[in-house]
Amino acid sequence: MSNQDWADANPERLYVISGGRDRKSATAGFDLVTLVVARARPEPTMQPEHAAILRICSSPLSVAEISAYLRLPNSLVTVLLADLLAERRIEVRAPVPPAALPDLSLLEAVIHGLQRL
Amino acid sequence: MDFNGSEPRGPREAELLPATVATAVKVVIVGGFGVGKTTLVGAVSEIRPLTTEETMTEAGVGIDDLAGVERKNSTTVAMDFGRITISDELVLYVFGTPGQERFWFLWNGLFEGALGAVVLVDTRRLEVSFDVLGRLEDRGVPFVVALNGFPESPGYPVEELRAALDLPHHVPIVHCDARSRESSRDVLMALMRYLYDLAARPAASAQPAASAQPVG
Q: Does the keyword Cell division apply (chain B) (predicted)?
């Protein structure tokens, strides 16, 4: 698959990549900052997008980063990730669940981290 | 291979996160067109800023005020973002929202789970911030206001700006230079300290927070 193909994200192509599946149901549970780590190697028989995800996720990457590197819409990436998760080829590290107010120790950690920047 | 100088196909060696990172948090930078959101993201990010996008179908954009796009089947909304590794276990993502502000709030999950938001304001064009401020308040997303210091910006006193923007007393207003890493870092710090105050004293949202002082 050439770079031109990757960049050409027309609706028909997106439909083909997603296998025509309903994106809404699959996106449940994935946030822009859900971290993904590959737990399997890419295989030649895989859909190229699945293999590409496994290739770049040898270290943790967020859904947003995967979307950026693969140049695919965020919601399509979550469909592909749902496939890989179902096959146990990836591990996901969910973000802190949305709460009315974040945890104080978490905020302290962020403040300390920013101070070192 | 990618020879056209655009974004890479994967993270560079120096950009890999530690395998131990277990938690990611996010903040969102909002503001009018050209106010410096992407500049701020680039200033604080440890990686070259990336762009993610979402394709919104007609069903997704719904019945909001979308005069002019109703004939389109889908609309692509782009989002610039950067990353700051906080520790071996925690990473912070900073999302900027270029253009098309009416779409930000239709992007599922952008604000859900966000720690908070920074509203970047150009004092020469205060009016573009009103809509954003209102929508954040409606959604209950905590935010600080950062005044990006353009050389020719009028130097309004902070309290005058607070009145002009109709901001409650507890919302911090800080000055910044979005081109500066340190200054942009301080904006994020101001947001985190404000969030800390809110979390430590939930009642603070209803009354002035003494510790929420401008850093500028």
A: no
pLDDT tens digits for range A74-107: 989 999 999 999 999 999 998 776 555 678 999 9
- Tens digit of each residue's pLDDT (9 = 90 or more) over B37-92: 999 999 999 999 999 988 776 544 444 444 444 445 677 788 899 999 999 999 99
**b/e string for A36-71 if b means 16 or more Cβ within 10 A?**
bbbeeebeeebeebbebbbebbebbbbbbbbbbbbb
Q: Is A29 on the interface with B (CB under 8 A)?
A: no
CB proximity list for A70: less than 8 A, separation 6 or greater: A6, A49, A52, A53, A56, A77, B9
Q: What is the ipTM of this complex?
A: 0.82
Chain A residues whose CB is inside 8 A of the B90 CB are 106, 109-110, 113
Going along chain B from its start, the domains and CATH numbers come out as 24-206 (3.40.50.300)
Q: Measure the CA–CA gap between B118 and A54, rounded to whole angstroms.
A: 34
Which of B10, B112, B192 is the closest to A111 by Cβ?
B192
Q: Report CB contact under 8 Å: B90, A106.
A: yes
**A27·B4 Cβ contact <8 A:** no
Q: Which of residues 64-83 of B touch A (CB under 8 A)?
A: 73-74, 76, 79, 81, 83
pTM: 0.83
- DSSP states of B22-75: -EEEEEEEEESTTSSHHHHHHHH-SS--EEEEEEEEHHHHTTSS-TT-TT-SEE
